[in-house]
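Subject: Ester cyclase

B.,
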Amino acid sequence: MTSDAELAVRYVDYLVGGDEAILEEAFAPDFLDHVSGRRGTDMMRVVRGWLERSFAGRQPTGRRIVAEAVHIFRVRDGRLAEHWAVRDDLGVLRQLEGGEAPGERPRRPA
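Prediction pasted inline below.
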């Protein structure tokens, strides 16, 4: 049996690697994404494509973009059934305009 935490990691594995088998393994068929309002695993294919291609009308630049977020899941019958997220979309847009990624921001002197 897969733990709830392992299922959450499988979500990230899918976003990073795109392994379609993860959709069958870790997601309930009627998976509900509260961020987009979409239901089903087909919406995950849209999310992944969106991350790889243009964003907010801008073409990919080849730069590393960091998208910080907090993800919350509801698990039902050993699969991810619902998803909520709090994302830093403004931070992503700033990076697309040439700003620094969160890990590269200047820090205040101690």
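The first helix runs from residue 4 to 17.

T.
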